[in-house]
Amino acid sequence: MLNMIISEKGGISRQRDFSKGEITIGRVQGNDIILPRGNISKKHARIVERDGKVVVLDLKSTNGTLVNGKRITGPQVVRETDRIQVGDYVIQLSGGRSKEGQKESPPAKKAKSKSVARARKERAAEKIESLDAQPQEISSTEIDSDPVSAPAPAPAPPKPIKKKKRDPKIEEYSALQRDVHARLIEYLDLRRLDLEKLEDDELWDQTERAIRNILLQMEEDKEIEKWVDVESLVKDVINEALGLGPLEDFLADPTISEVMVNHASQIYIERDGKLEQTEKTFSSDHAVMGVIERIVAPIGRRIDESSPMVDARLKDGSRVNAIIPPLALKGPCLTIRKFKKEAMSVEQLVGFGTFTPGMSEFMEMCIQARMNTLVSGGTGSGKTTTLNCLSAFIPASERIVTVEDAAELKLSQEHWVSLESRPPNIEGTGQINIRDLVRNCLRMRPDRIIVGECRGGEALDMLQAMNTGHDGSMTTIHANSPRDALSRLETLVLMAGMDLPVRAIREQIASAMNIIVQQTRFSDGTRKVTQISEVTGLEVDIITLQDIFYFKQEGFDEDNKVKGRYVASGFIPKFYDDLQRRGLPVRMDIFREQ
User: Fold this and answer.
1) Angle CA(272)–CA(273)–CA(276) in degrees, nearest 5?
2) Exposed, middle or buried, 355 (CB in 10 Å: 0-12/13-18/19+)?
3) Phi and psi (nearest 5°) for 324?
4) What are the pLDDT digits (tens) for 427-462?
């Protein structure tokens, strides 16, 4: 039950009582509280009561919702003393409802059933929810020091996993780096520097000279400890001011495949398929935001509170995803999946053990025979790399059009058109999504269409293209097995908004898809093609599959590496019979390899 007092500036106050726990505020009919003023949006705010707490949320209103004079950017817990401002109106909670966290005292005997740990967690949760600015971390000592009266101690919980202690010098170094960066901005105002009039080399040289002058003065004033490596400090500050900060070293390291910034003081990398935390940090959340903006600005993307997520790419094609507060609670978060400067070849994948020479030969025949191919796998399994390698088998005489969210594919063919989707602009218009581009492909006279990843309604357009003269097209999908890939493809077609019967969708899939390549990332970090299957048709209402090759795992070796071998099922795909009848050279013994 919600009870509140609504006051208009210069007007009278009135009380409104609601028997439900959720209400909306706006200027049009349909809202629980209608405030007919021009500075109030149609759907302006929502107030919700949950578990004895009252939370106010802004519904992307034009003028915003304020609590105690401060505009809120996310869900905000409010109390009776807080003033919620919506346009010219002020709303306050009134009595008559149970106060936050207030409950009747249970009998003394029952009080013992509530453990100390549970009480502490609830109090810690209240503290977290009451924060109205950027999220702050609550230390374990702060939670544990909260006085809670409880009779008998609860059974001892399992010992927490001890976190790796960071070297105090790392924190001191980060503080020094922040100090130098702040002085650099005063010494050489980077924000007002006319970047267009300076070449990159000149800009970096000018900034480096400024940093060295600052450090020279700090050394004279004995503000720098003897253990600090001045050259490393110069490099770190200039990278953070003009480059990608501590990420520069990671991006230059060929052994690192992924970089993950959880927040300013926590960076993980993936090396040889294994995750590890680094000692490198950013000096502040502002520095992380600066790096994100330097990545997305050159390709026309934007990131701010109204659009807090973005997909982008680096100059070398590496894929970037960024998400910032208020969605990322601990600070700006950045994930970079690196791509090699030179596209990987099929021979390299064979060398890595991703598949066998026989499987490579088979896939070459599939591509040249214009079989529609679906590369399936989980996140980070190497789907895009495999798709890129398989595209090398497409004859150079054919016209290829690729469609991607963030351009990653690197084809070797000359006759190749690369299309990339576009997010909405700051007014929320101008978006061009993958589905729009796939439809446009059909008017570009492509021989083959390659969609970087099917994740929505574009799956229907892709199937229709495959069924209407664009044989040999390829795409990827997130799924854990060939059978799951077909089920997910069916779900994505339903997301297109067409009221199609399930059987009609399955007929489309069965006639369009020919080959499914399933890729898996194992616990030891290796990536392997675990199945190559042919879609053989539709029986009753079930799409039938037949494995042609599969990986048979046989445990782990002494180094905890996956052991196993590739096996040919002995099944010969239908199109091979057609190739033989047409007199084309095909090697049949690959289907008997064990």
Assistant:
1) 85
2) buried
3) -125, 170
4) 777 888 888 998 898 889 999 999 988 888 889 988
Question: Which string of b and e fits 485-514 if b means at least 16 CB within 10 Å?
Answer: bbebbbebbeebeeeeeeeebbbbbbebbb
The DSSP 8-state label assigned to residue 578 in this structure reads H
Retrieve residue 98's tokens: 């149970």
What is the spatial distance between Cα 409 and Cα 448, in angstroms, rounded to a whole number?
Answer: 14
The token pair at 100 is 């936050």
pLDDT for 370 beyond 60:
yes
Nearest CA to 479 out of 371, 375, 328, 355 is that of 375
Q: How far is CA 565 from CA 244, 288, 519, in A?
A: 42, 44, 15
**Under 8 Å between Cβ of 322 and 309:** yes
- Phi then psi for residue 474, to 5 deg, are -140, 155
Report pTM. 0.60
φ, ψ of residue 261 to 5 degrees: the values are -100, 105
Task: State how far the Cα of 440 lies from the Cα of 7, in Å rounded to an integer.
Answer: 54
* CA atoms in the 13 A half-sphere facing the CB of 144: 3
Residues 185-213 have pLDDT tens digits of: 766 655 455 545 556 677 777 788 888 88
Rounded to whole angstroms, the Cα distance separating 580 from 573 reads 12
In one-letter notation, the amino acid at residue 419 is L
pLDDT tens track for 539-568: 888 999 999 999 998 888 887 888 888 998
Structure tokens at 366: 């599939």
Query: 288: burial class by Cβ within 10 Å (0-12, 13-18, 19+)?
Result: buried
3-state secondary structure of 504: helix
**Is the CB of residue 516 less than 8 Å from the CB of residue 496?**
no
**pLDDT on residue 341:** 66
Copy the structure tokens of residue 26. Answer: 């706006």
How many beta carbons lie within 10 A of that of residue 48, not counting itself? 16
The neighbour count for residue 60, using CB atoms within 10 Å, is: 12
Q: How many helices (H) and strands (E) does the chain have?
A: 16, 26
Evaluate whether 63 touches 25 at the Cβ level (below 8 Å).
no
pLDDT at 213: 83
Contacts of 106 (CB under 8 A, 6+ apart): none
Q: What is the pLDDT of residues 128-150, one digit of tens each?
A: 344 333 333 333 333 333 433 34
Give the tokens for residue 420: 């990339």
